[in-house]
């Protein structure tokens, strides 16, 4: 293995840690949202918000050269987890 490959893999590892920390923070916020929705008797699902966010994320994906379909799949998983948290 080359020194450059080791360095690049180290960068990926660091990025993965950032992603995981961000997902943990997101999950914590999802819990707080669930509590707030329960207090004011709002449903877990907000289709208008989901659609709005999907458009914004697609624009960002395009701006950063990320495959939109791939990003849609990732966020579908993230939203599914958020809704699970909010249903508890």
Commentary on this structure:
The chain has helices at residues 3-39, 47-64, 68-87. The chain has 88 residues and is mainly alpha-helical. It has 3 helices and no strands. 85% of the residues lie in helices and 0% in strands. It has a single domain (3-87), classed as Chorismate Mutase Domain, subunit A. The chain is flat, with a radius of gyration of 17 Å.
Would you summarize the structure shown here?
This protein has 88 residues and is mostly helical. Helix content is 85%, strand content 0%.
CATH superfamily: Chorismate mutase
Order of helices and strands: HHH
- Which percent band covers the strand fraction? under 5%
Helix content: over 70%
Class derived from helix and strand content = mainly alpha
- The rounded distance between the terminal residues' Cα atoms is 47 Å
CATH class: Mainly Alpha
Largest sheet: none
Radius of gyration of CA atoms, rounded to a whole number: 17 Å
Question: Can you lay out the helices and strands and say which pair or pack?
Answer:
Elements: H1 3-39, H2 47-64, H3 68-87
Helix pairs in contact: 1-3, 2-3
Which characteristics define this entry?
88 residues, mainly alpha, Chorismate Mutase Domain, subunit A, 3 helices
